[in-house]
Design goal:
Elements: H1 16-21, H2 34-70, H3 98-122, H4 124-130, H5 136-166, H6 175-208
């Protein structure tokens, strides 16, 4: 006779809160895996805050300036565009221009695609659980294709922005710019790798509970 007790689906996606929900209401914070999960989550968020935020701010300011040097028309204030006049009324937004807007979009795409690309390579089981409702092979091909295109384009944009902001657009090749751009790409990969490792720790602890 089959057992009436159902077992957990091995393909389920776990969240840090699952370990806390499994505890009795009167259980102390350190019962079970609650404290290790909490500590691992705190480390993950702290790492993201102290690494991704400064890198993103520096990228935002630097590449925006480079874009303005490459295409001066991108320096037009957003508040001068139809429907965005209200941005001129606030101190934090009246200086924003089209270059700032065009800088945010590739930055977000690069962070996401680096994470997914490394997850495909280093934690394929985790990736397959995340996209279990889709065709995995096609999903991998799509993400890797977008990742290569966006990351290479972003590196070229960073390189050109560095040259334009430092020496002017007349400079074609610069060893210093190549080194800075390579360092930038490696830093993005390293920060994303550590973030992925810390998130995997949370997932492992949650499964143990």
């Amino acid at each position: 006779m089959p057992s009436m007790t159902s077992t957990a689906d091995s393909s389920a996606v776990y969240s840090p809160a699952d370990s806390l929900r499994a505890l009795p209401l009167n259980a102390p914070l350190w019962a079970g895996n609650a404290w290790p999960v909490f500590w691992a989550t705190a480390k993950s968020w702290t790492w993201s805050l102290v690494t991704k935020f400064p890198l993103s701010v520096a990228y935002f300011a630097f590449v925006s300036q480079g874009l303005r040097s490459i295409l001066p028309d991108l320096g037009v204030k957003l508040s001068k565009l139809p429907g965005l006049v209200f941005l001129a009324d606030y101190r934090l937004t009246y200086r924003l221009d089209i270059a700032n807007l065009l800088t945010v979009i590739p930055l977000i795409a690069v962070w996401i695609l680096w994470h997914l690309g490394l997850e495909i390579y280093l934690a394929p089981a985790s990736f397959e659980r995340r996209f279990s409702r889709w065709d995995i092979d096609r999903c991998k091909s799509l993400i890797l294709t977008m990742g290569v295109i966006v990351i290479v384009a972003d590196a070229c944009l960073f390189y050109k922005s560095f040259i334009s902001a430092t020496w002017g657009s007349s400079q074609a090749i610069s060893i210093a710019a190549l080194l800075v751009t390579t360092t930038y790409v490696v830093l993005l990969a390293f920060v994303t790798f550590v973030s992925l490792y810390l998130r995997q720790q949370i997932s492992d602890l949650t499964k143990e509970d």
